[in-house]
Inverse folding.
């Protein structure tokens, strides 16, 4: 355990010291002598971000329910704390026991976004754990990673010992079983990795080799021995009602990004938006029952005292019994002054009624995500909304008293042209016209329309995985074009940093040759790349020059269908044939229906659920 | 329907959480403990409770106070026990009683007792410290630099803080370790942060105080009646 006095002195000097104290309500404390396995759940960003992540709470509770396992948390220390830790030579410690994580059995990172990769390295270094998997010795912990980014694990292949692909509630326990036996048997690290490589969902990168073509593309990706699987199949939980869900979660002392009860209502999405990775990798759709959800809600409110419940899923409106659930929750909790928030809600008449009923403060902003400015482009990306629906929803909202509207779009989508970008402007102006078209006494508040554009990042396992991303210059030109066209005091235009999106694209579709670039960038001081104040594009470009890596090879290059992609060896259940077919339909602007209305043949029901979704 | 006033402590790691964090912590603790706190009316109902004064981050305390308005009365001890059962380590309700006064807790508070502990470099005797304290208390005016942030700009002002110091007393001197007790202005009618006493002792007594050795603990909060200090629990 680290010295209490030293820690006390350090904490009095850093910003938000409560990030580093642990001991929150519902956190676990165990006698470390009584446990066989010590697991550090590592989130490569600050406490406030990490604590808002539902996956952390699920796995923390799942692992700690076992008496022989102690799961603790560790987050990326903010730069002031990092300075103090390094200055006093204090290794990165876990919040619960305040013991250094390099003495643990596992350090498990969750990878939620590519721009956190340098933080993974920084945390390993702060923990005095070797950065390269090959340099770790018997006394070092196993470094494991999961989360959405590991559907292309390759950029971290040299760093992470093994990956867990997919939903890990069952998988992690299987690994722990193997580990406990291995630990008693005095065998090598290698032998443990060999054994777990046989479990579905586990990928041990060092057991595979990649051979490249002259042009840098992959010639062959293969296991180094026949005993390792050729294809790594993701894991899913078949029945959400039977899997562990926490009935008590940690209540943070400081305000976090999502500081409330999170109820996961279902996994997967049936919409089939062609840009969306989550919509493909999390298939099939599986819902929790209303009864279960009400039961969890009750227990979670009792154990946390939270004042708000939020429903969590990729698309709240698609929950088949939403009305029943929402009405039950309102009835159950309205006297207890507990608010309900419904993110990712599609706005139709039902949802506006519901929102009206649950809004604690009525006139907070409404957010719409048309994603693209023209119907043509919305059809290309299979975003199944049309302008009329949007206009009607906005009009209804204005009638009901809203006056702040946010509109989200992407620029740089495949097959986009400047007319599509002008469409963004047109839509914003139409929203404004609707407001001023209302009779004066019906207009409430002061109209404010915010248009935000992000830069499209093509992701693995989407129909656009072959698409060459727009260059930084093109993005900037398009942003300027739109900014010059939006000239209205009521409309604000914000856009995302194209350089950051470029880097995100490099790592999203990168291969294992990028590991060395990551390490070099980290050596140059890159960390917290997702934070605008910390992101340093120049350092990254220097890194690529020095390591002989062409980042545009990964981000901007168009791929042919027959190219071996770095993530092809992972089976997410959605077939490559389906993705190709979807991309071809995109070119022609042909829509694919929501698969709740009939199977669209993505393949998930063949490989995973045996015929039914 | 009544209002209960409690005294509580905020110690150990809980000294690192801010005033707003503490407000949220109590709000959630009330719900976990199933205490029938009264809520305000309107679109955004919030629980009706108030804290006496904000304690700076890093300062521990045995003398914090809170008023809680209840929807229906519950036994005072039940209130305290239920709440203590769900509060985190470091925060504890020490005592309480139903009050009738309509005066807000915040407006009652005028003074705080602090225990300030620190280490010094160099040598110092009991007399040196006592002389320093004597000098401070004899002065009519004591100017310190106060940094205020207005519109993101730092504004440094020289302020006289003498009237904020009611008393200073040396409690312990053991080698290089010094403990003093300070009674300082607190509350909405003026507030003197205990940190300034350190600055003043450095300046007036030429004491070389080790900055990261300073520990500050609030002992008690007071209201004032006929120039006497009165506990907020006895303010009726």
């Amino acid at each position: 355990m680290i010295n209490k006095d030293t820690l006390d002195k350090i904490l009095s000097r850093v910003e938000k010291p409560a990030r580093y104290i642990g001991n929150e309500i519902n956190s676990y404390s165990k006698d470390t002598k009584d446990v066989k396995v010590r697991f550090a759940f590592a989130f490569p960003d600050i406490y406030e971000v990490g604590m808002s992540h539902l996956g952390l709470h699920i796995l923390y509770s799942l692992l700690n329910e076992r008496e022989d396992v102690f799961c603790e948390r560790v987050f990326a220390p903010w730069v002031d704390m990092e300075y103090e830790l390094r200055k006093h030579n204090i290794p990165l410690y876990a919040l619960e026991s305040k013991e250094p994580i390099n003495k643990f059995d596992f350090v498990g990172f969750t990878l939620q976004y590519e721009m956190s990769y340098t933080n993974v390295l920084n945390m390993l270094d702060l923990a005095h754990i070797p950065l390269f998997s090959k340099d770790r010795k018997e006394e070092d912990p196993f470094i494991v990673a999961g989360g959405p980014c590991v559907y292309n694990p390759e950029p971290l292949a040299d760093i992470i010992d093994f990956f867990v692909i997919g939903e890990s509630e069952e998988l992690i326990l299987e690994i722990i079983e193997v580990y406990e036996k291995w630990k008693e048997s005095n065998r090598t690290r290698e032998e443990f990795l060999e054994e777990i490589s046989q479990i579905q969902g586990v990928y041990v990168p060092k057991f595979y080799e990649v051979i490249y073509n002259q042009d840098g593309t992959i010639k062959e990706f293969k296991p180094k021995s026949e005993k390792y699987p050729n294809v790594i199949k993701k894991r899913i939980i078949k029945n959400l009602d039977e899997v562990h869900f926490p009935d008590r979660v940690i209540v943070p002392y400081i305000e976090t990004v999502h500081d409330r009860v999170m109820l996961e209502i279902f996994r997967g999405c049936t919409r089939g938006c062609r840009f969306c990775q989550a919509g493909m990798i999390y298939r099939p759709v599986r819902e929790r029952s209303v009864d279960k959800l009400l039961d969890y809600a009750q227990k979670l409110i009792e154990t946390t005292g939270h004042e708000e419940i939020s429903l969590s899923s990729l698309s709240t409106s698609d929950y088949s019994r939403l009305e029943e659930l929402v009405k039950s929750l309102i009835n159950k909790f309205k006297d207890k002054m507990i608010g309900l928030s419904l993110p990712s809600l599609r706005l139709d008449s039902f949802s506006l009624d519901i929102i009206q009923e649950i809004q604690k403060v009525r006139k907070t902003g409404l957010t719409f995500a048309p994603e693209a400015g023209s119907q043509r482009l919305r059809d290309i990306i299979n975003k199944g909304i049309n302008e009329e629906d949007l206009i009607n929803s906005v009009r209804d909202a204005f009638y009901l008293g809203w006056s702040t509207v946010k509109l989200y779009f992407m620029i740089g989508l495949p097959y986009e042209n400047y007319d599509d970008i002008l469409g963004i402007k047109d839509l914003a102006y139409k929203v404004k016209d609707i407001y001023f078209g209302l009779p004066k006494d019906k207009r409430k508040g002061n109209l404010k329309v915010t248009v935000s554009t992000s830069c499209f990042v093509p992701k693995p396992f989407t129909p656009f995985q072959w698409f060459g991303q727009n260059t930084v210059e093109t993005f900037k030109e398009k942003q300027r074009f739109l900014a010059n066209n939006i000239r209205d005091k009521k409309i604000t235009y914000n856009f995302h940093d194209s350089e950051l999106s470029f880097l995100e694209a490099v790592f999203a579709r990168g291969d294992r040759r990028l590991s060395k670039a990551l390490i070099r960038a980290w050596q140059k001081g890159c960390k917290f790349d997702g934070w605008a104040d910390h992101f340093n594009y120049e350092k990254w470009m220097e890194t690529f020059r020095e390591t002989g890596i062409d980042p545009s090879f990964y981000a901007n290059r168009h791929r042919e269908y027959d190219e071996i992609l770095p993530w092809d060896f992972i089976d997410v259940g959605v077939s490559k044939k389906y993705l190709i077919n979807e991309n071809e339909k995109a070119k022609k602007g042909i829509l694919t229906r929501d698969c709740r209305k009939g199977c669209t043949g993505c393949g998930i029901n063949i490989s995973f659920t045996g015929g039914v979704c | 329907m009544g209002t209960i006033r409690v005294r509580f402590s905020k110690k150990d790691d809980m000294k690192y959480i801010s005033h707003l964090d503490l407000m949220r912590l109590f709000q959630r603790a009330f719900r976990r403990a199933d205490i029938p706190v009264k809520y305000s009316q309107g679109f955004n109902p919030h629980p009706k409770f108030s804290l006496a004064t904000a304690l700076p981050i890093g300062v521990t305390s045995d003398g914090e106070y809170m008023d809680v308005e209840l929807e229906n009365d519950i036994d005072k001890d039940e209130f305290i026990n239920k709440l203590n059962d769900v509060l985190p380590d470091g925060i504890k309700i020490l005592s309480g009683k139903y009050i009738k006064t309509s005066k807000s807790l915040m407006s009652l508070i005028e003074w705080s007792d602090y225990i300030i502990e620190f280490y010094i470099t160099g040598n110092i005797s009991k007399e040196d410290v006592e002389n320093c304290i004597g000098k401070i208390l004899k002065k009519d005016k004591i100017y310190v630099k106060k940094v205020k942030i207005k519109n993101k700009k730092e504004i440094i002002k020289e302020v006289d803080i003498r009237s904020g110091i009611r008393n200073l007393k040396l409690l312990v001197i053991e080698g290089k370790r010094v403990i003093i007790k300070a009674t300082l202005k607190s509350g909405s009618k003026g507030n003197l942060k205990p940190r300034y006493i350190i600055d003043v002792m450095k300046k007036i007594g030429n004491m070389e105080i080790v900055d990261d050795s300073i520990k500050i603990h609030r002992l008690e909060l007071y209201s004032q009646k006929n120039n006497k200090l009165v506990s907020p629990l006895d303010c009726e």
Observations:
- The longest strand of chain A covers residues 404-411.
